[in-house]
Amino acid sequence: MDDANWIEADWPVPAGIHAGTTLRSGGLSQGSFDSFNLAAHVGDHQANVISNRIRLAHMLTLPQQPVWLNQQHGTRVINIDDLPESPVADASVTTKSGIVCTVLTADCLPVLLCDQQGRQIAAVHAGWRGLLNGIIERTVAKFSSQQLVAWLGPAISQQAFAVGKEVRDAFVQHASQSDCAFIKGRAGEWYADLYLLATLRLQTVGLTDISGGRFCTYHEQNYFYSYRRANQTGRMASLIWKE
Predict the structure, then answer these.
(1) Angle at CA 106, nearest 5°, toward 105 and 110?
(2) CA pair distance 197, 94, nearest whole angstrom
(3) What is the CA radius of gyration of the chain?
């Protein structure tokens, strides 16, 4: 881990691009939200969430507070250059400096995107529903350039992510190569590899420079929140901004 509160994205982007994911430590939240919960919708005390968000801005020397999306496990992608707070969407893009694209996760996969020139950036909330229905493809389509790089932030690993047969069948029906991202378990369950499913979707739209994808939110409980591990829990933030 990079430090007690933050994983910096390790990927080949131009100078002036800042990106990464928070860890669960270093904040003021208590109990099941211990301690750096950044989500206002999970039942945590709002005063603690506000304090954690202020602490986040100071910790990373953010140019302004992040744009917090109202995520719906959907496929809406918005340009956040001039939008009000808390727009309903699961991905945001911008070309402006100083705007912080942000998604919240606790098992779902955060995907951060940047063009090779550092002119446009995006943050994507990609759970299995969003991946299946095309959230990555819709976000990439918002970029002016198709020469992009991607970083896959912390998500649940395949060993911990059991899904029903209908989920596996839906992915395979969409693209037969998705079959390699599933391992059959007991009692009709399948274990899905979110990292691989996202990589396949990124490759389909032309991305080959893909980094990250080496953590497990479920098993690494000292570092990450996990909704599968504890239904009432906090959320990490994955952020990207440009100078």
Answers:
(1) 35
(2) 25
(3) 17
Tokens at 142, concatenated:
């918002």
CA dist 37 and 34 (Å) reads 7
Neighbours of 142 (CB within 10 A): 16
- Amino acid, single-letter form, for residue 79: N
CA 152 to chain centre: 7
Beta strands in 195-235 (DSSP E): 209-212
- pTM of the predicted structure, to 2 decimals: 0.97
Q: 113 in a domain, yes or no?
A: yes
The verdict on residue 191 lying in a domain is: no
Tell me the per-residue pLDDT of 49-98, one tens digit each, with 9 for 90 and over. 999 999 999 999 999 999 999 999 999 999 998 776 679 999 999 999 99
The number of distinct structural domains making up the chain is 1
Q: Which amino acid is at 185?
A: G
Between CA 127 and CA 125 the distance in angstroms is: 6
Identify whether 109 is part of a domain: yes
